Batch of 2 targets.
Target 1
Amino acid sequence: MRGTAQRSTPWWRPALAGLAAALAAAGAGQLTAALVAPESGPFEVVGQALIDLAPKWAKDAAITLFGTSDKLALLTGIAIVLLLVAAAAGALEARRPPWGRVVFGVLAFVGAVAATTRADSGPLAIVPSAVAGLVGVFALQLIVARLPEASAARSSPPDPSGTESTGPDRRRFLAWLGGTAAVGLLAALGASALQSGRHAVDALRAAVVLPRAAARATVPPGAELKVDGISPLLTPNADFYRIDTALRVPEVDPATWTLRIHGMVDQEVMLTWDEFLALPFSESTTTLACVSNEVGGNLIGNAVWLGTPVRDLLKRAGPSSDADMVLSRSIDGFTAGTPIEALTDPGREAVLAVGMNGEPLPLAHGFPVRMVVPGLFGYVSATKWLTELEVTRFDRVHAYWTDRGWSERGPVKLSSRIDVPRQGQQPSADRVVLAGVAWYQHVGVQAVEVQLDDGPWREAELATAISADTWVQWRYEWTDASPGTHTARVRAVGSDGQVQTAERRPPAPDGSTGLDERAFDVA
Ligand SMILES: Nc1nc2c(c(=O)[nH]1)N[C@H]1C(S)=C(S)[C@@H](COP(=O)(O)O)O[C@H]1N2
Ligand SMILES: [Mo]
C-alpha cells in the first residue's frame, strides 16, 4: 500500500523534493517576470505586499534593526520562510497527496493576488506567479512519484531485506531532484541576467539634458568647517540616504511620463515631460530628513535640487480656497499629504525637482521628478517618481503613512548631531575637537551648545548657514581635556529661540527628540 511504503521514506527525501520543486517554481516565476512583466516577480510582489500590509511596529523595527538594508532583510526572510514551507509541502505531498501540491498552488495564488494589488502592475501581472505555481505543482508531483520507496512499492515486490530502497531507484530519484533544482537555479540566473542587462532606464536617464538654472545655488564663505570626519556640507548622491516603500525601484520613462494636477481646482493641468522641462527651473539647497531618523541617526542629507516651484503649477490649476492639502502621488502608488500653504508660500522653495547635485535625479531618488519641500519630513512632502498632485483636504483623504500610525503633519524638528569624534576614535588631550551638524529647516539654527561630562553648556563655533533650509556645521575645541573617558552632548538653539529638548522620544508618530551624545576616550 502506497501510504505504508512512503511512511518508511526518510523524512528528508520528500522535504528535498519540496525544496527542488520550489527552486524550479521560483526560477520559472522570476524568468517569466523578466520576460513579460518585470514589475511582477513573485518575490518582489509578495515582499511589496508585506511592506504595505505590515503593521507600523514591524516597519519601525525593520528600519531600526536593518536601517537602509531593510529591504534585503525582508527578501532574505521571505526566501527562508518559502524554503521552510516548500520542505514541509514536500513532506506533506509524500504522505497526503495532493496536499503538498495544494500548498504550492496556494503560494502561487498569494503571489498572483499580491501582483494585482500593485499600482504599477501591468495586464500580465499574474502570469509570473501562475507560471511559478504550475511549474512547482508539476515538479513536485514528478519528483515525489520517484521517491525510491514509492516506485519500489509500485513496480516490484517489497524488498524482503528491509525498507532501504534499491540503488537504481535512489539514483533515479536523486537525478530528478538535482535536475529540477539545477533547472530552477539556471532559470533564476537567467532572470537576473535579463534584469540587469536591461539598462533601458539608465540610458534614458543618461540622455536627459537638464534645463538651465535661472539661478544657481551658491555656498557662502564660511559654510564649511575644516574638520576631519564632519558630514560634508553637501551630501554626495551616492551617500544620500534612501528610504521608500519600493522594493523594486520604479523605472519611469520620461517619454511616457505625465504630471497631472487635479482635484479641487478650476482646471486640470496635464504636462508632458517636454512641457515640464520648458518651465522655469532654479537651483535651491535643501536638507531632506526622514521622520524615522533616530537621535544621532543618518537618515538626513543635504543636496542642491534643480526644480520648478510648485506654487506656479498650482496657480495654473487654480486651487479652491477650501483646499488645505495637496496629495502627491508616485507611480508606485505611494502618497504624501502636504499642507497646501507650504506649497503656495512664495517664501518657501517647495519644488518639483529633476536634478540632484548637478545630475538628473538618481533612479532611487525619484527619477525623473520628485517633490522637495523645505521644513517638512520626507513622508509628508518628498514624493519620488511623482506623477500626480491632487488638491484636496486633510479630512477627505489620507496619505500612505497617515494610515499607518504616523502623524498627518510632519514639520521637521530642531535637532543636532555629533559627527566627531567618530565612534571609537581616540583624540589626544592636547587637541579634542568635537564637530557635527544641526538643523531646523525653514526656521534656522542660531546657536549650538556642547556639554562635557555634565558640565555647563558651552557655545560651539557655528558655520555660516547656506540658508535656514539647510543644516549647518558646528565645531567645538576642548582645550583642557584630561585623559580618560568623557561624554559629550550637543543641543541646538533655533532662530525662533527654541532650545532643543533633552526629552527622549522615539520617531513615531512625528519625529524623535532628545540629545545626541558621544562617549570617547582621550589618550
Ligand atoms: N514614491 C515614494 N516617495 C517617497 C517615499 C516612498 O516610500 N515612496 N518615501 C518618502 C520618505 S519617508 C522619505 S524620508 C524620502 C526619502 O527620500 P530619499 O530616499 O531620496 O532620501 O522620500 C519620500 N518619498
Ligand atoms: Mo521618511
Target 2
Amino acid sequence: MAGEVSSAPTVTGNRALMLEEPLLFEIGSRDQTGVDFEPHSEGTSRMGGLERDSLDLPGLSEPEAVRHYTRLSRQNYAIDLGLFPLGSCTMKHNPRLNEKMARLPGFADIHPLQPQETVQGALELINKLAFWLIDLTGMHGVAMSPKAGAHGELCGLLCIRAALEARGDARQVVLVPESAHGTNPATAAFCGYRVENIPATKTGRVDLEALKARLGPDVAAVMITNPNTCGLFEPDMKAISDAVHAAGAFVYCDGANFNAIVGKVRPGDLGVDAMHINLHKTFSTPHGGGGPGSGPVVLSEALAPYGPLPFAAKYPDGSYKMVEEETAGEEHPDAFGRMVAFHGQMGMFTRALTYILSHGADGLAQVAEDSVLNANYILRSLEDVLDAPFAFSGPCMHEAIFSDKGFAEGFSTIDVAKALIDEGFHPMTMYFPLVVHGAMLVEPTETESKANLDQFIAALRSIAERAKAGDQALKAAPIYAPRRRLDETLAARKPVLSYNNPAPDGSSTGLGAHFGGG
Ligand SMILES: *Cc1c(COP(=O)(O)O)cnc(C)c1O
C-alpha cells in the first residue's frame, strides 16, 4: 500500500537493485579515457575548417561504460520481462528459433551487392516468404521491400496512384474511417490526396451507407483497417469492396491487425487491392525496442503490375534472380519505381519465414484463435468494472477496448496507465483510437498464459476500482518506478535533446531539466 511505504531516500539514490544512473557525460571525466588516439599527422586538412579541436567525449573505463548501459537497460521494459499489452502493436513472444535462423551466416553475413549466384539461398528465402504471404492473404503479388507498416501504406497508395494514372484517371480523395491509425491519413496526404473521414456506426464499424453515399468519381481509394482499431471485425468488408470497385476506386486494407485473422480469413476474398503486413507484429520478430520493422504489401491482380522493384523471381531452371530494372522486355515494365536502396529487411524475412514454417497452417490459425480468445477473456473479465463501449455488440477480435467513463471526477486513462507501471506491467495503448473517449486498447496476444492474464486482470481490476473510488494515491503513480510522472506536454513540446556542458560554477542544468521528475 502506497501510504505504508517509507519514502526515506537511500544514500546512493538506488532502490533495492534498481540503480540510479546519471548521464554518461556526468560520470565520465574528460581527462580519462579507455582509448589513446594516435597523434594526428601534419598535413593539409580537407575538412574545410570544420574540424574540431576537442570532441569532449566523456572518458570512462570499460567496466564503467558496461555498467552504464547495463543499468540503463534494466530501466527498460521488454516482452521478455512480462506482458506487454500495447494495443495495435501485437507484442508477442519472439521464438528463439527465429533468432537462430536469422543469424545463420548465409543470411546474416551477405551483402546486397554480392553477385546473385552467390546468394541464391537468400533469394530463395525471400521468394518463399513472398509465396506464403500471397497464399495466406489470397492475393496476387507482394512487394517485399517496404520497411515498416507506414512505408507499406505508402507503397500501396503509390501502386493505386500508378494504376489510376495508367488509365488517365486523376482522382483526388482518399476516404479513411475516423478510427484509423494516424499513419493512414498521413500516408494519403503525403501522396497528395485530400483525406476525408468516413463516420462509424454505434457498434464501432464503418458506416456502409455513409461510405456509399460519399463514393464518386473523385475518390481514389478507401483505407480500411480490418479488424479495425476498436478490435472489431468489419463484417461489411465485402460489401464495402464491391461498392468501392463499382465506383472505380481501390480498397487499401491496413493489415496491422492481421494477427486476429491469420490462417482464418484471406483479405483477397474480401476484395482488398493492397494490404501491408507488419511482419514485426503478426509474424513475431522483435520490435518496439530495437528490432527493425518490415512491411511487405500484398497486391491484387489489378495492382500487382505496378508494384515496386526489385523483387526476387524464380526462373524455370530453378534459379533465382533479383529483378532490379524496369527495362523493356523484363517482367515488370509498369513498376512505379523503387521504395528502398536494396531489397528490404533480410533478418526480418528470415524470422518471419521461420515463424510461418514452424507454425504451419494449423498453427497459424491457432495463433488467430488464441489471440482472440485471450482478448475476449480480458474483455469479459473486466467489463463489470471498466466501461467497454462495444462489448454489447458481441465478442471482440484480438484486442479489448475500454474507456475511462465512470471514473471519479479528475481521474482518467493516464492514471490507470501510470498505476500499471507500479504493478510491473507496460501500460496498454492509451487515448487511441480517437473515436473512444479515454480509450484503453489492450492486446494480450496469444503467447500469454492464463496465469499471466489473470495476474494482469487482477491488477487492472484493482486500479479501475481505485479510479472509480477517486483514490488520490493513484494520482501519484508511479511511485515505485525510477521516475515519477513527467511533464509529458513539456517533454513533447520542448524536448531538450542536447547536453550542455555545465559551466565551471555548476550553473548550467545540462540535459534533463525537463525529465528530472523524481
Ligand atoms: C502499427 C500500425 C501501423 C504502422 O505500422 P509501422 O510498422 O509502425 O509503420 C499502421 N496501422 C496500424 C493499425 C498499426 O497498428
